[in-house]
Amino acid sequence: RKAWGANGVEVVMDKGKRIARDLADLHMGQPIPGLRAKIATLASKAKNVLADPSDTEQMEYLCHRFMITDTEDEIPIVIELVREALAIASKDNRRVDFDDMLWLPYEYDLHPWKHTLVVVDEAQDMNPAQLWLARRSVKRGGRLVAVGDDRQCQPAGTLVRIPDKHGNVRSVPIETLQDGDAVVAWDRHSKSLIGRNKPLYP
Fold first, then answer.
1. pTM of the full predicted structure?
2. pLDDT above 90: percentage of residues in the chain
3. C-alpha span between 33 and 19 (Å, rounded)
4. What is the CA radius of gyration of the chain?
5. List of residues 6+ apart from 193 with CB closer than 8 A
6. Among residues 68, 76, 82, 79, which one has the least CA distance to residue 33?
7. Contact 23, 106 (CB under 8 A)
């Protein structure tokens, strides 16, 4: 964050949300519930996995994978608006959010400071943008040491079960959890809710 600020770039944590809000507000077509959030989420995921926004199949996959929308007539509209959002974010390189800090170096083919040794902890949680930046930071002949534990991995898109206010349990992607959400514990060996001994499936 300091490196970006030292180069005259303003760190704006809600840049992606602002762009999504503006595009959703200008959208004159079919009304889509939660359009701002859908644009912001898909744009963020596309940046984190270094997706090619012109690849419709890849963008559709992200819509389904991260449960952004499963409504077939919404998907092309959301994807088109996300393409616009990414173009705006790319041009506005004097303000960045955390997604941009990883994505813009890739987008502009920038070369970060090089090191003879780069050490990455919690490597199991790295997304493609983080991995690209770590690899790009290694000098020729240098080393990248990545330490991780695949048994700790909870990648984006992992479904967790949470109860709603009526006590019904539903599955949501882990990255959508908010402060204060209760997570229903899951024992993968007994296939039951811990403490309830009630199988969720046969």
1. 0.74
2. 53
3. 17
4. 20
5. 184, 185, 186, 187, 200
6. 68
7. no
